[in-house]
Amino acid sequence: MLEIKAVSKSFPGVLALDSVSVEFRAGEIHALIGENGAGKSTLMKIMCGIYQADSGEMLLDGKAVLFRDYHDAIRNKISIVHQEIQVLPLASVAENIMLDKLGAYSRGLVIDWKRLEAEAAAHMQMVGLEMPPRTQTSRLSAAQKQLTQIARALSSGARLLLLDEPTSSLTLHEAATLFALLAKLKERGVAIVFVTHKLEEVLQISDVVTVLRDGKRIGTEPRGALDRASIIGMMIGRTMTELFRGFLPVRPEVAALELRGIRSEFFDGIGLRLRKGEILGLYGLVGSGRTELAKTLLGEYPRTAGEILVNGTVARIDSVYDALHHYGIGYVSENRKEEGLILSDTVTTNIGITIWQKLCGLIPGFFNPAREVAKSVEMIDRLEIHTPSASQLVGRLSGGNQQKVSIAKWLVADCEILIIDEPTVGVDVGAKEYIHQLIWRMAAEEGKSVILISSDMPEMISLARRILVFKDFHIVGELADLNEVQYTSDEVGRRIGEFLA
Q1: Number of domains making up the chain
Q2: Which residue did the predictor score with more confidence, 115 or 104?
Q3: Distance (Å, rounded) from C-alpha 285 to C-alpha 418?
């Protein structure tokens, strides 16, 4: 359907694509994978007209095409779902899905909302969005916003569907719904390009796999000819061995954080206990209450009753500022673009923002910018953040390096308790393993306490030594013996599944 021939693309100081050639065929799911900076997103944006190639050509159904913008791609039935969430928060879900088709539902200046919402509801059902079409998008979780974007792409009737990390915020349940939908689209002859860092998904649903590295195509193979180890070898040029990380030296008698009888608009008396040196996993479907509990703890959502105890003492937390500066609690948001980072500011500012008060020292109003830069450079080195300098704008970094900055700003503040929400969303396999090691060392070597919120089952099994299972804003189960017994991934998955059934 679409053939890329010797396409190259450069940005200042970076050769993003180096003479890449690849074919995407109707009725196939083609996985496009590689580490951050490999060129995946650049190639996708060229395919849908957001970028234009410096050299090379594209053939659509055997004919040369040049897309000057995204509208050209849409007219040719090519649609993209970006990794970055791009919705209008104050508009309804229906409006976001039908945004580029409002004219088809209007008579003069009057829009037939009933017909528009009915059409939107049909696409919402396809992706598993169970809510009224008039729901304001700002009330949706990151995963639900991602599903809204997918529904929008489907509503355009695309022949070629480009999906950039579509499951980055989804749990296994939502991902399974999406995969069933992709299988139906494939049967209808739709060509699907699937970018993901989750190799389990590549092996599960793809027909063909293309690996990019440093802007070059390393190879294209049928999925059946590859396994996890060979894919990783192609991606990073080395092998990685998955090892059981061991048990944590948890101090069970000491509670770093305890929630007792928390009530709010979401919860009716929920509680949990995080021990010193523990990685406590919160697992559940999207909307089950994991992130909502974290934000209630941090004061973003008001609580009407209940107590928060830090190191055994009742704490008063009404904001993220209180949590950080009074109780040493940090929060890595699942939505780094909207909540975790200031994309238009520098790496230094984003890392240093949590320690500005400390950098003022004993003199009110006195700020030492040299110390801020030094601390930022220290974290850049420690987390191996790939950036030209500490003054680089964060919005120009790759997704994986943005996530490292999002984590770095809390590490530099030396938080004793860290809540990490989806720590490796949109992060490649190499950076993912690095972040996993970082989280493990924080607990195992530094004695810090971590609440890990993740929709990535292997990630949860690898890191969490106790798991609370959430459903409908309740804790419906607990795997309490993971720090005593080494279970297989299948055994842990089965036990979690029984709680969610």
Answers
A1: 3
A2: 115
A3: 22
